[in-house]
Amino acid sequence: MQIRHCLSSTFLVCLIFTALISVSGCGHFEGASEPEQVQSPQPEVEKKPVAVYHDFEDVLVPEDLTIIKDRTVVVSTPGFRSGILTLKGRLEPNSLYHFFSINMEKDNWDVLSRIKAPETTIMVFQKATRCAVITIREQQIYTYVEIGIAPTLGSISQTPTNDAIY
């Protein structure tokens, strides 16, 4: 009987000891999980712009297009820039068409004409003193974009000559 009593008390002590370890272990895990729930503010990830203004301050260009320098000519005079900006990139012509349609109007350009063909799209815009022609050409590897900016004829100062009178 003594052995049985000893076994039952040992079993009871082990059971209580196991229960205490379990309870204290659960409390330990709860405390450990609290810092995981409270997250410290992470520094904001620097957002890369999806579009930029290159040589013309009011013509937004997708960031994925790169300038082809040997096919680009920009002339700057005081208060005015004109020329042809040639770019290339691996973008869909339709997405470029929609991009320029939306952003040129946001930059206060008026739409004069849009011509879409299977491999070429031409878009013509106008402001009070200048016009813009955007040509989008799809080729095998790249899509090419040409942005031409020129003064409108009414904005060019013309000096009358005697040759104009008949």
Structure description:
Helices cover 30% and strands 33% of the residues. It is elongated. The chain has a domain at 51-155: TATA-Binding Protein (2-Layer Sandwich), CATH 3.30.310. Strand 8 and strand 9 (143-151) form a beta hairpin. The termini are far apart. Strands 3, 4, 5, 6, 7, 8 and 9 form a 7-stranded antiparallel β-sheet that branches. A two-stranded antiparallel ribbon has the order 1-2. By secondary structure, the protein is an alpha+beta fold. It has 2 helices and 9 strands; from the N terminus they run H-E-E-E-E-E-H-E-E-E-E. This is Lipoprotein. Residues 1-24 form the signal peptide. Keywords: Signal. It comes from Desulfobacter latus.
Structural class: alpha+beta
Class of one domain, according to the CATH hierarchy? Alpha Beta
Q: Which range best describes the helical content: under 10%, 10-25%, 25-40%, 40-55%, 55-70% or over 70%?
A: 25-40%
Order of helices and strands: HEEEEEHEEEE
Backbone CA Rg: 36 Å
The CATH topology of one domain is given as TATA-Binding Protein
CATH arch. level architecture of one domain:
2-Layer Sandwich
Main β-sheet: number of strands, strand sense, barrel status? Answer: 7 strands, antiparallel
How much of the sequence lies in strands comes to 25-35%
Low-confidence stretches: none
Question: Termini distance?
Answer: 140 Å
Number of helices: 2
Shape: elongated
The total strand number stands at 9
Rounded mean pLDDT score? 80
Protein name: Lipoprotein
Keywords: Signal
